[in-house]
């Protein structure tokens, strides 16, 4: 499994976060020792590492972020190109088996995907999340919210202390 850390800069009105985005390439195949796993399997695995309040669906096709919670996304089918950090920022390819940790405030948007693209999402300790779309009038509020979100205790994939290096 390859682990990639991306440090995104503030991109007003998308605050992003001082914590890095962490991409775990092909993590699910390593975890399950195969490429056949269900959304329920992945939700159960994430819950063992204290990520819950989960769902199975996709990624919105407009820039958005959560100011009250970090988010972990796991691709269980297909692939998508996802822009991280707001307009004019980097686009990654998110494929079956990949897991992404998005710190609170990290803008993300699906640019395009295969028809079979499905992901699982969950939040540290089952935190409640909000939907924010980069409204400049909310910028001060969301920045304050993000500062209050504690670093997760556990890494969503390894179950070890989060970002302990």
From TrEMBL:
InterPro entries: Cupin_2 (IPR013096), RmlC-like_jellyroll (IPR014710), RmlC_Cupin_sf (IPR011051), UCP019307_cupin (IPR014500), YjiB-like (IPR047121). This is Cupin domain-containing protein. Residues 61-109 form the Cupin type-2 domain. It comes from Ruoffia halotolerans. SUPFAM superfamilies: RmlC-like cupins. It comes from the Bacteria.
């Amino acid at each position: 499994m390859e682990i990639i850390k991306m440090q995104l800069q503030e991109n007003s009105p998308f605050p992003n976060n001082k914590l890095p985005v962490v991409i775990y390439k092909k993590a699910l195949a390593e975890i399950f020792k195969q490429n056949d796993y269900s959304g329920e399997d992945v939700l159960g695995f994430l819950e063992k590492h204290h990520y819950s309040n989960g769902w199975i669906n996709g990624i919105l096709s407009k820039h958005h972020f959560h100011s009250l919670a970090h988010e972990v996304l796991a691709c269980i089918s297909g692939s998508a190109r996802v822009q991280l950090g707001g307009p004019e920022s980097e686009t990654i390819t998110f494929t079956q088996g990949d897991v992404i940790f998005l710190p609170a405030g990290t803008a993300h948007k699906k640019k395009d995907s295969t028809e079979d693209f499905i992901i699982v999402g969950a939040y540290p300790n089952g935190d409640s999340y909000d939907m924010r779309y980069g409204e400049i009038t909310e910028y001060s509020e969301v920045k304050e919210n993000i500062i209050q979100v504690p670093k997760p205790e556990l890494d969503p994939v390894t179950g070890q202390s989060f970002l302990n290096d």
